Request: fold
Amino acid sequence: MSILQTENLTKIYGDGENAVHALRGINLTVEKGEFTAIVGTSGSGKSTLLHMLGGLDRPTTGKVMVDGKDIFSLSEEQLTIFRRRKIGFVFQSYNLVPVLNLYENIVLPLELDGKKIDREYIDQIAETLGLKDRLEALPNQLSGGQQQRVAIARALAGTPSIILADEPTGNLDSKTSQDVLSLLKVTSEKFGQTIVMITHNEEIAQMADRIIHIEDGCIFRRN
Reply:
């Protein structure tokens, strides 16, 4: 069952001779529970694609369907709510709130949405990611790898339809990168979570179930 689909997705910045074609008719399907890596060099269009998949930027033409919903048919307010409830984000810069402890960072999206917090589920996520004993700590008391684990826990907490990971190991050393990617894969399998990750690193991409290569705004190879 597909959880994410794009139809002829294009993105053009500027116009006339100055037009930049960042995406050129992307057609993509991701199945529920799949861990997909999108690999490309700088300027290939992979970040633009991820922003479209997450509703952070609107395409020039085409559709993005998440859980059967055409997300760009929604108003900005509806899209903001849909994104908060259905899409989890993991960025390379972690984006943790420095004055909140780890537990408060993890449950923040749930509180913003007025959702009831399932403490047992949060504890299960924290234990899987090796954070159970650090939930009272502040972000600045953690290493980069630990902070990224908190970001993954926060993305999982709301049981989104899909998690989008934008170069999640970009600020980490190779050993920590492997650890974080292993945990991302474990959580994907344990919680049945669909993950789409973009990376420029072929070695990191090998952790995924499927690899899609993008170049000059086009998908040119699928493994």
